[in-house]
């Protein structure tokens, strides 16, 4: 990785050499190849659709987000990139600020459904940045792999909860009396036990109509009722769920749809 000095009060980072990643999109099923390339300071994280005429650029920027139903999609002038969450998590976690990602299809490959394979690809290519004894100027990277075992962040105990996103295991988390699960359609009984006793839960509720990999609103309400959780906020909603204020009037006491900027004191 290379350090770039800029006008900001921190060093920006890019990668030193090209990284090749191939796989299939989870929603499209299409094979896709990505080439991660170094980029100049202040470039940011930029995708390039090399399969389209003109090879358009699509910057990973909140202003370019057009869809968050099932995955996050960004678009610029008709060129789309979807399911970007995991590679972005890997880049942020390894402190990569500037990178060009050439991609030959719309959807980023899912790999194992987490950011870990992307982190490992960066680790393999740039092992010197992860060595115990590094020369001055390299970023300090501490990559922690989360399993199903409890862990501590600072002084906060965290209990991972394994849930199902169709056939893919993903993690929710419990922090004391608060549980956070945002991408599931099924929770096994042994994992439900970990949630029991929570006083507040944030839970995904995609829409009213049945969905293959996400809880519906009725399913989310039923789960909260079964687990006897007094306060629930439903998130990961699509436009198909209906109007926010109207839906809230239909929900049981203590249940409501979440909103942008919501802050919970636990």
Explain briefly what this protein structure is.
With 266 residues, the chain is an alpha+beta fold. The chain is built from five helices and 17 strands.
Structural class: alpha+beta
Strand content: 25-35%
In DSSP terms (H or I, runs of 4 or more residues), the helix count works out at 5
Instruction: Please mark out the parts with pLDDT under 50 across 5 or more consecutive residues, or reply none.
Output: 4-9
Rg computed from alpha carbons, rounded to a whole number of angstroms:
20 Å
- What is the number of domains? 2
Number of strand elements: 17
Biggest pleated-sheet summary:
7 strands, mixed
CATH superfamily of the largest domain: lpxc deacetylase, domain 1
Walk across the major sheet and give the strand order. Answer: 11-12-13-14-15-16-17
Q: Which sequence of SSEs, written as H and E, runs from N to C?
A: EEEEEEEEEHEHEEEEHEHEHE
Globally, the shape reads globular
Question: Portion of residues in helices?
Answer: 10-25%
* End-to-end C-alpha gap: 39 Å
At CATH level 3, the topology of the largest domain is Ribosomal Protein S5, domain 2
